[in-house]
Amino acid sequence: MAIIESAELKACGAHIALKEQQRLIHFLTVIRNDFEGLRGSILYHSPLPSIDLVVSELLDEEICL
What we know:
It is a single chain. By secondary structure, the chain is an all-alpha fold. It contains 3 helices and no strands. The protein has one domain (7-64). The chain is elongated, with a radius of gyration of 16 Å.
């Protein structure tokens, strides 16, 4: 049996995705300037990566610093 999403549910999903993107952008704008290059690289991704991927990349970069 297929599950059919209602228009309201699709709109809710789009709203949640938008809020997650806004939180990610805010998070990236407040991290230390040591991560400026990585921050710029992440912000140019389209679509934006997940927060889990971003944190992983930041941890890798921090280890290299």
